[in-house]
């Protein structure tokens, strides 16, 4: 395979979260190694949570790949991302395998699909139930396997799970687990952040952003084990360090930044991570909310200038956010 282009129109799939004129498109530029994806949507409700984008194939069995997230700015939203052509989102599937694009909104254990597009195939919505089942299973597995769940909570989950299996109420189990997970994350991280901040052996306090208006406190971390007590409570923070671009940046640097953002009353609101690199528009992406480049003091936000790609995690619900 050499080069190719694909343009898929996204039409209104379900009424929830969108008005009658909701629409969008997905433009794919296929290259041998990396393929460029641009998705534009309009007419969806501007809500605090992001919309998720998936590529799908349902010819025989479900194949799907998470592409990224879109946040609405007033009436429109946009996602630009590069993917591995032969291994989209680490699914071991070539980009040409996928023939459906959908915009998804999660609400607890419920899923809505306001916009979808079909590439040279007839519309067939059987993929919806198959995708929902997979996503619910992923969510359940992630929570059950997370280190954020204490032994006591795990026992409670098993007891509730057993009762609900008999009553066939799996959805209620998932909602209970999510609530427990968020509660544990908030308390655990507040305790551990305070403890680690007071005992960061061998870690230097460091602030390369002299002009920041936010109430940050940064540390220069060379060994990730220095903040393991914080990371163990946050699935989102663990996922950040698994991202291919983050791994690439870490290979080229001897350190990363760990920081916290506090409110006016010095209450910690966000965990922040900064990865040193040179600015390049090719590196900018929105997967998981990672889209902020902070120039180092004396530099600007232009190609080749030094700075940090920064990502934030809310401490109250373990969600990655784009801006704080």
Describe the structure.
With 324 residues, the chain is α+β, with helices and mostly antiparallel strands. The chain folds into two domains: 4-131, Superoxide dismutase, copper/zinc binding domain (Immunoglobulin-like, Sandwich); 196-321, no CATH class. The chain has helices at 127-145, 151-167, 170-197, 228-231, 235-242, 244-251, and strands at 4-12, 18-30, 34-44, 51-57, 63-70, 76-84, 100-107, 110-118, 204-205, 216-221, 256-262, 268-278, 292-295, 306-314, 320-321. An eight-stranded antiparallel sheet has the order 5-4-7-8-1-2-3-6. β7 (100-107) and β8 (110-118) form a beta hairpin. α1 crosses α3 (170-197) and α2 (151-167) packs antiparallel against α3 (170-197).
CATH superfamily of the largest domain: Superoxide dismutase, copper/zinc binding domain
The oligomeric state of the chains shown is: single chain
Please give the alpha-carbon distance between the first and last residues.
Answer: 42 Å
Q: Radius of gyration from the CA trace?
A: 21 Å
Q: Helix count?
A: 6
Q: From the 3D structure, determine the CATH topology of the largest domain.
A: Immunoglobulin-like
- What proportion of the residues is helical, as a percent range? 25-40%
- What is the string of helix and strand elements? EEEEEEEEHHHEEHHHEEEEE
Structural class: alpha+beta
Q: So what's the overall shape?
A: globular
Biggest sheet, spatial arrangement of strands? 5-4-7-8-1-2-3-6
Q: Total number of β-strand segments?
A: 15
CATH architecture of the largest domain: Sandwich
**pLDDT averaged over residues:** 77
Unreliable stretches covering 5 or more consecutive residues: 146-150, 167-189
